[in-house]
Amino acid sequence: MSKPPKYVPKHRHAPEPSALTKVPRKVLRSTVVTSGLAAAATGLAVSAGVLAAPGDVASVAEDLGSTVSGAASDAPTVDGSVGDSADDAVDREPTVSRAFDRRDAPDPAKKAALSVDDGPAVTRTVSLADGDPRDIAQALMPQFGFGSDQFGCLDSLWTRESNWDPAAHNPSSGAHGIPQSLPGSKMATAGPDWETNPVTQITWGLGYIQDRYGSPCSAWAHSESVGWY
After folding, report:
1. Could you give the number of structural domains in the chain?
2. 205 is in which domain, residue-wise?
3. 148: left (phi over 0), alpha (psi -120 to 50) or beta
4. Is 182 a member of any domain?
5. How distant is the alpha carbon of residue 40 from its chain centre?
6. What is the DSSP letter of 169?
7. In a domain, 164, yes or no
8. In 10 A of CB 75, how many CB atoms?
9. pTM check: above 0.85
């Protein structure tokens, strides 16, 4: 004898929602609040999936604002205490800004004394004539086209003539000064202080060597040959 066919109902019982389709009420509540905030910002209110009229936006935003502000005032802080309310914030002492400098204005006299631009300039004049005659000669040689390689010859020449003494004077011939100008008054063309100023004497002597011999080494070679230049 065969078995009767298995009964199959025409309408099965609706399946239980799976874990993926179940939405916790707390998450749904947060979603509704977030959606309400977004709708209030854009000017539309969403209620049960239907766009509300613009006139309802103000009331929805007001309700959401009161809810958010109330939650914020009661929210605990980092140390576990409840945050201050708006009234408590008003009672706080105002924060002193660093923008307001309470120091006294600077003394104008001190400011002027310390200022580099307005203060009196301190100057010191150093005369070239106070230096070593050899240093003076090396400083003046480039003006006559003489290089530093010519100084050795010049040093030998004028060491023999006067030992670089501005007051050196030959009473028999009348030669005078570092270059032993003959007569000494010729050096007046370089300056009126030719008798004592080494700068004037060296300037004249370098000009004389340039015109007569072309270079100190040529003048030294002539002096070595005949004993004078």
Report:
1. 2
2. 130-226
3. alpha
4. yes
5. 51
6. B
7. yes
8. 9
9. no
